[in-house]
Specification:
By secondary structure, this protein is α+β, with helices and mostly antiparallel strands. Helices cover 35% and strands 19% of the residues. The chain has a 6-stranded mixed sheet with strand order 3-2-1-6-17-16, sandwiched between helices. The chain has a 5-stranded mixed sheet with strand order 19-18-26-27-28, with helices on both faces. Strand 21 and strand 22 form a beta hairpin.
């Protein structure tokens, strides 16, 4: 098959806010896309769930729309590939029906089970040292204290909802549930199953379940997907009824795909080892591909199997980034109470951008911490919460809004510091020429909805003191990454060709006039966590 022959992929970017379906060429051009919001159900006590049927209906609606509204012949659409939110749990019965809502990556109800798992005489940072050494050796990580990993969800379900646990035929990640809906086949990718922490990844080319670890957890292996595949492998053709409903050919192939973290890295163009990117969506992360297995347990990050066969990807995530702006919009400025039912909510994000651009850097000394639902990295703390610090009467909403933009950037810098330390030895040994003025990652590609904001990109450049490359059409990076995964899997392109297809809208360089200000504020940002962490732990026990 010629890699120069352009075809099209139906790419599904299934995020927390809702799914986006896009038609993307095998060269990464987004031809058409559609988005449908889905509800997020939260309650005090750590509950965070979504309804799988609402995902599926939204995916079918958006996919049908982009196919119907496009002039591309359906026979030119050669594949379907999904990229979903990661670290979720959908229990299904033998008929494939969900037994409850999906427990998503935000949910912390299993924290007590994670802490129980880590009980022992010798602990480091709350983790059981002996258990974690065993887990780290085999799978690169283990149940986090926050209880947000799928493996903790399974322990919680077994203890708190035994009827659901016992009646479950398979526990599926959101990624694998959508693939099941598309094909009727149950499988997991090496990427999607990783956060269950029960796969042996010591040999990246021969990943298998670890029966030893599953037995220690006292879980039922048969309730996990038994078929494990690389992200580029074909799972099967579309189910006939799905193909008919979407209007696609019945032999259209469904490629396994990968979770959002993996697809976004590929969609950002950061294909080569140590090429870094920042994702700013509801949550955020800083990542790059690496050639080796490694874990930084103290800052909750590890290299895990990538969507690229035989490669690793640094996995980490911070809970809230753009979600802080959504919170400001929906819960404070435009709350859906009776007085505002008939009023249209304006494009508030553009208004935020204009306000921030006119507000001086530093927000008059106001610091926002975006820990609205706890944090994962570089500290794993489910009880920490967000706040505005140094608020005073001479301030106004302009300072608050800019402080939110800057606070997210401070949080990303906090994580970025440890990502650079994670790869520093490898880069110095293998590729020292990429180091500029002592900076291991002198430039980063930025993607996600937040990357559409020019002023936010400049703030990231100033706070991180790094060149920020704004990927063109950054909100489509996940869909583009899913399309590239399918294109490689189906033989229409190669990994090394992908960076050639990535364009940049702008390059943002740090403003030296803001260096001392932001360095000072970042230092105090970290000090805030050290000062208030225990207070929040007591309040939110």
């Amino acid at each position: 098959m010629s890699i120069n022959k352009k075809k099209y992929i139906l790419a599904i970017d299934h995020g927390t806010n809702g799914p986006k379906s896009a038609l993307v060429s095998t060269h990464g051009e987004v031809i058409n896309w559609s988005f449908e919001e889905v509800p997020l159900y939260t309650e005090k006590g750590g509950l965070a769930e979504q309804e799988p049927q609402e995902w599926w209906e939204a995916i079918k609606k958006t996919a049908t729309k982009v196919i119907d509204d496009c002039s591309i012949p359906v026979e030119e659409i050669v594949g379907v590939c999904n990229s979903s939110q990661w670290s979720g749990t959908v229990p299904i019965d033998k008929d494939g029906k969900p037994l409850m809502r999906c427990i998503i990556w935000m949910d912390t109800r299993a924290a007590s089970y994670a802490k129980k798992f880590h009980k022992g005489l010798l602990q480091v940072g709350g983790y059981n040292l002996f258990k974690m050494l065993k887990w780290l050796k085999i799978t690169g990580g283990g149940p986090s204290l926050s209880g947000k990993d799928p493996i903790s969800n399974l322990l919680w379900l077994k203890g708190e909802k035994p009827d659901i646990y016992n009646n479950t035929f398979k526990f599926l990640e959101p990624q694998d549930y959508i693939n099941y809906q598309l094909t009727g086949k149950i499988a997991a990718s090496f990427a999607s199953i990783q956060l269950h922490w029960v796969t042996d990844i010591r040999d990246i080319n021969n990943i298998t379940y670890s029966d030893k670890l599953i037995k220690k957890l006292k879980l039922d292996k048969e309730k996990l997907p038994q078929d494990l595949k690389w992200s580029t492998e074909v799972l099967g053709p579309l189910k006939k009824e799905v193909a008919d409903e979407l209007g696609l050919e019945k032999d259209t192939k469904v490629v396994m795909g990968a979770p959002d973290v993996h697809s976004a890295d590929i969609g950002s163009g950061a294909i080569h080892n140590y090429d870094g990117h920042i994702y700013i969506g509801t949550s955020d992360w800083v990542g790059c591909h690496v050639p080796y297995k490694k874990t930084d347990i103290f800052h909750n990050m590890a290299s895990v199997p990538s969507a690229i066969p035989g490669r690793f990807l640094i996995a980490n995530e911070q809970e809230i980034a753009g979600g802080a702006l959504t919170f400001l919009r929906d819960k404070i400025l435009y709350h859906k109470d009776e007085l505002l039912q008939e009023e249209a909510v304006p494009d508030v994000y553009k208004i935020f951008d204009n306000i921030v651009a006119e507000t001086p850097p530093g927000s008059n000394g106001l610091i926002f911490t975006p820990w609205l639902i706890g944090e994962r990295a570089p500290i794993d703390d489910h009880s920490i919460r967000g706040g505005l610090y140094n608020l005073s009467l001479e301030m106004n909403r302009e300072h608050i809004i800019r402080a939110i933009f800057e606070g997210v950037a401070f949080n990303v810098k906090w994580l970025h510091m440890y990502v650079e330390k994670f790869i520093e030895k490898w880069v110095k040994k293998e590729d020292p020429n990429r180091i500029v003025n002592g900076k291991i990652m002198p430039e980063l590609n930025i993607i996600g909805g937040g990357a559409q904001s020019d002023i936010w990109c400049q703030i990231f450049a100033d706070v991180l003191d790094r060149k920020i490359r704004q990927v063109k059409n950054p909100i489509q990076a996940n869909a583009r990454g899913a399309a590239f995964i399918a294109a490689v899997g189906l033989g229409y392109t190669e990994w090394d060709h992908i960076p050639k297809h990535i364009e940049f809208s702008n390059i943002f360089t740090p403003n030296p006039e803001n260096r001392s200000l932001y360095d000072k504020m970042f230092k105090e940002y970290v000090n805030i966590y050290d000062a208030v962490g225990k207070i929040y732990e007591r309040i939110n026990e």
